[in-house]
Amino acid sequence: xxxxxxxxxxxxxxxxxxxxxxxxxxxxxxxxxxxxxxxxxxxxxxxxxxxxxxxxxxxxxxxxxxxxxxxxxxxxxxxxxxxxxxxxxxxxxxxxxxxxxxxxxxxxxxxxxxxxxxxxxxxxxxxxxxxxxxxxxxxxxxxxxxxxxxxxxxxxxxxxxxxxxxxxxxxxxxxxxxxxxxxxxxxxxxxxxxxxxxxxxxxxxxxxxxxxxxxxxxxxxxxxxxxxxxxxxxxxxxxxxxxxxxxxxxxxxxxxxxxxxxxxxxxxxxxxxxxxxxxxxxxxxxxxxxxxxxxxxxxxxxxxxxxxxxxxxxxxxxxxxxxxxxxxxxxxxxxxxxxxxxxxxxxxxxxxxxxxxxxxxxxxxxxxxxxxxxxxxxxxxxxxxxxxxxxxxxxxxxxxxxxxxxxxxxxxxxxxxxxxxxxxxxxxxxxxxxxxxxxxxxxxxxxxxxxxxxxxxxxxxxxxxxxxxxxxxxxxxxxxxxxxxxxxxxxxxxxxxxxxxxxxxxxxxxxxxxxxxxxxxxxxxxxxxxxxxxxxxxxxxxxxxxxxxxxxxxxxxxxxxxxxxxxxxxxxxxxxxxxxxxxxxxxxxxxxxxxxxxxxxxxxxxxxxxxxxxxxxxxxxxxxxxxxxxxxxxxxxxxxxxxxxxxxxxxxxxxxxxxxxxxxxxxxxxxxxxxxxxxxxxxxxxxxxxxxxxxxxxxxxxxxxxxxxxxxxxxxxxxxxxxxxxxxxxxxxxxxxxxxxxxxxxxxxxxxxxxxxxxxxxxxxxxxxxxxxx
Length: 774
Fold this sequence. Notes:
Blueprint: H1 18-22, E1 31-32, E2 37-42, E3 47-52, H2 55-59, H3 63-66, H4 71-74, H5 77-87, E4 98-105, E5 108-118, E6 124-130, H6 139-154, H7 159-174, E7 178-184, E8 190-197, E9 208-209, H8 216-224, E10 227-230, E11 238-241, H9 264-272, E12 277-285, E13 288-297, H10 305-350, H11 354-359, E14 373-378, E15 381-386, H12 391-404, E16 410-412, H13 415-418, H14 426-429, E17 431-436, E18 442-447, E19 452-457, E20 464-469, E21 472-477, E22 483-488, H15 497-563, H16 570-598, E23 607-610, H17 611-621, H18 623-629, E24 632-636, E25 640-643, H19 645-661, E26 670-677, E27 681-687, H20 720-730, E28 735-739, E29 745-752, E30 766-770
Parallel strand pairs: 24-26
Antiparallel strand pairs: 1-11, 2-3, 2-6, 3-11, 4-5, 5-6, 7-8, 7-13, 8-9, 10-12, 12-13, 14-15, 14-18, 16-17, 17-18, 19-22, 20-21, 23-25, 24-30, 26-27, 27-29, 28-29
Helix pairs in contact: 6-7, 6-10, 7-10, 10-15, 15-16, 17-19, 19-20
C-alpha cells in the first residue's frame, strides 16, 4: 500500500520526499555483510581499487595496505593463474565458486569460495566466503535433489500442491525454520501461497503484504541477483575502503553482489518479524518477477554458496513445471477466446451490420471477455447485452473516456476509483474494458463489483513510520505483523492479459469490417444514385411522351361524342364517359409521377423561406375546395426557416387537401395547422376531424400508389402522401400520423433547425380561413 504525506506527520518543517525515502539507491551502498570479504579490481592489471575493512581476517593485511596491490600479490602463483584463466571467458558464472587457498601467516591458510562478477560500471568484483568444505558438491547431488522433487510433482496436478512441494523441498535441503512461496499480484502487492514451517511458529499462509514491503529498487535487485542471503540479520556491516572508487570517483555498483549489506530498513523489518537469517530466491516468468521463495530462520544461519545454488536450481526446475502448467491453462483459454473471436468476425462479415454479428449470434460479445455486460456505441446509438449502465450513464462514460483516455484499449477493475460517477452503478460496472472504434464509437465490456475480504500481515495503511535521526528523516517498518482484515469494495475481477489482447484484435477486425461495409455502401450509393437518376429521367421522359397520345385520345373521344351524339344510345354514351374518366385519371397519374420525380434532395433550393407565404399559397391553390366544403382552417403564426419554399408549399397543399378530401359526410371540416419549436427541429402538425385512419395502415399510406379506399369513394392516385414523405426526407426531417377510425387524424412532420433560421413566430397568433361561396 503506497504511502502519502497524509499518512505521516513530519517531525520538523523539513520537506518530506516520500518517493525518495521509499526508493533508496540500494545498489550503491558501500557496505557488505561481515561473514565474507570483497575486492574491487581494475582489469587487466587486476589492481585492487577497493577492499572491505575486514581484509585482515583474510589476508592478514589492513585495508590501506591491500589497496594498490595486484591479485598476484595476494594469491600464490597457482591460484592467481587459475583466476586469470577463468577471466578470459565472458560468462564468469562458469567460475563460481572457485576454491582459493589464501595464506594468512606462515602455514596458516584459509579456504574460501570465491564468487566473481563484473559490476555495471565495469569493475571486477571478487567476493570471498569461508568454505565449509574443501570439495564442490558433485553433479549427482544436484540431480538426485531435483529428481526427488520432480517425482513428487508428477503425482500432483493442482497448482497449490506444486507450490507446497517447492517449499517442502527447499526447507528439507536448507533446514530453515520457515520457507514461503510469495507471489506478486497484478497491483504489486504480494500473497503467501505456500508455506512450510515449524509447528509452533505463527502461520503466514494466505496473508497479503503491501507493495512497500519490497520496494521497486529491491525488486530490480531481485531481477539481477536471483539468490540473496542474509546469514545474520543483526550483524554489523563492514564498509569498503576507500568509500568511493578511486577510478570512477563514484560508489561501485553492487547490484549483483551476494555480500552487499541489506538496507537498514530491511534489517529492522526482519528484526520486527523475529527473523535472524534469511534466504531469498527469485522466481522469474517472461523476464518479470513472478514471486519469491523466502526462507526465514529465527537465529543466524549460514548457507554455503553451492547449497544456495542448489536451492536456486531446485526452485527454477520446479517453477518451470508450474509455469508450464500455467501456460497450458492460459493456452487453453487463449484457444477458446480465439475460437469465439473467429466466430464473431465471421458473423460480422456475414451480417448486414457488424453490430448484429456481435450481438445476435452465439457466441456473442460477452463470451469474448467473460463479461456480465457489454455495450456498443455506434452512430450515436447504443446496443447493449447483459447487465449494463443506462444509456444516459453510458453517454457520460464515453465522454469521460474520450477526454481522459488515449490509445487503442483501456481497462480497469476499479472504475469507480478513477471515475467517481461509476459508483452509482458499481453492481454492474466496477470493471471496464473499452476499445474505441472511432472518436465517438466504442465497444465496452463490464464486470460487476466483487466484495472480498483480504487478510494482511499488519495494517497496510501503516506500513511505515517516519522518524528523524541526526536531523535526517527515514522510513521505519511497522512493528506489528498481526492479522489485519480489509473488506475490498468497488473492484471487479481483474481483466486477464489474454482478454485485453483478444479485445484489441477484435478492434482491428471491427475497423476492417466497418471500412469494408463503408466501401460497399459507398459503391451502393453510387449505383443507387445512378439508378435514381436514370429512373427520374425515364419517369420524366415517359410522362412527357405520354402526354401527346393521351391528348389525342381525349380529343378524339370528345370529337366522337360531338359528331355522333344523336346516333349513340345510352350504352354508347356511358362507354364514352368511361373513356373520358380514364383519360382524366391517366392525366392525374402522369402529373403525380412527374411531381414525385422532381422531388430531389440535390435539387432543393435552400433559402430563407417565410412559411406563412408558402402556406398562404397552398391555401390559395385549394380555395375552390375550401369554399365548396366550407372548411374552417386555423393556422398558428409560421416561422421563417431555411428550406425549399416550393416544396413546402406542395407539402402543405397535399396534407390540407387530404384533410378536406377525407371528411365525414355532412360534417364541416375543421382543420388546424400548428407549429412548435423543439430543441433541434421545427415540428408542424395538420389536424382534422375527418374519417380517421386505422393504426395498422400508418406505414402503408406513405408508400407510392397505395390507397385505402376505392376511387369511387375518394378520388386520387395514391401518390400524395408518398410525395409528402419524400419532400420531408429531402429536408432531413420525419413524417408520421396519429389517428383512430372515426376520430380524425393529425399528420406531423419536422424540419431540422438550420444555422441561419430566423424565426418570426412570437406567440401563437392564429389566422382563420373560413371562405364562403360566392
